[in-house]
Amino acid sequence: MNQEQLLKILLQCGTLQEYVDETARVLDCPYWIMDEGFHLSAISHKPDATSLSNQYLRDTTLMESVKRWEKFQVFSDETHLEPYRFRDDFLNRDVMIMDILVRNNPVGRVTFFPQHEMDEASIRLTIQGAATYLRTTQHDTNHDMYQQAFASLLRGEDPESFAEFLESEAPGLEPPFQIFCISAENRGRLFAYSSSIREIDAWTLPIVTQSALYVLSSAQHPIGQIQNQLPGLGKSFPFEDLRKIRSYGMQALYASRHGNQIVLKDYDLYLLSQTADPESLISPKVRACMNYDLSYQTHYFDTLCSYLRHGENKQAVSEELGVHLNTVRYRLDQLKNLFEIDLETERTEIFLSCIAAEYLNS
């Protein structure tokens, strides 16, 4: 199991039990998790660990089991920071245990029954994922001051003060910024995903609202590198001004809920009617194109808008702008060469940017 697989599992599984069942299937290893009081918290069903538990209770007394497992430190107070493996002759199976830590405090213990060799990286990732479920209640109330500032900006509260605070105080948060969002009804899943995000990149600011997880990050940080692998993860355009977080947060939320299945007209009208800052809808690439036109008296932006408005019909653009067809072709090539505008992969973003820019100019 790798980090990307773990993130997908966390996104799918809203409870610890669902997580244990899914990871046991991926690892092909039955296992269970006990809390710090050695009470069973979750147990896998496929592969099945319940038969192992039942066998213990059926074939011997509970106290004999406890004594035997104390001998192997399964029920001991000693903390196992590394995978601890032993042979249980009663079950005639190998057993491996490792503790789950949150903020350096043990909160549970995982007991694996390996059916084949398991790599240590997969074991540690499984432990890491389990920890996100065992610490979710802490994340519900203990937002740090940076997260509180981010939450206030999302609500549009005192943008000047909170933006200045984040810019001056939040370590590792550097422009350009980007907001990522996952919308889901299961808050446990959102908390689990929030915790995992912090494991990947300590300089992100994740917060969970009533039905969505928002993540503020520098655009070059790792969360941006994995976003294409996670279904349901919406993103905003990169931006420079933290005072505009509310508008960019709205972008990310809408993208999360609708993904690529967007009716462009509805998307444009919705965002333009809801945002207090239409300029935030203009992508950096289109902004660069507009600035270039102003500096060099070129007409790349007009050509781009006309091309999209006419359904990418070059002849129609030629007639509207009164230029030769070869000139249209040249300008379209330059849009990609100079500004990296690729309509095959980012047509929705570019179309929206042109609509917003024309809306502002009007």
From TrEMBL:
<dbReference type="Pfam" id="PF13556">
    <property type="entry name" value="HTH_30"/>
</dbReference>
<dbReference type="InterPro" id="IPR025736">
    <property type="entry name" value="PucR_C-HTH_dom"/>
</dbReference>
<dbReference type="InterPro" id="IPR051448">
    <property type="entry name" value="CdaR-like_regulators"/>
</dbReference>
<protein>
    <submittedName>
        <fullName>PucR family transcriptional regulator</fullName>
    </submittedName>
</protein>
<dbReference type="InterPro" id="IPR042070">
    <property type="entry name" value="PucR_C-HTH_sf"/>
</dbReference>
<feature type="domain" description="PucR C-terminal helix-turn-helix">
    <location>
        <begin position="301"/>
        <end position="354"/>
    </location>
</feature>
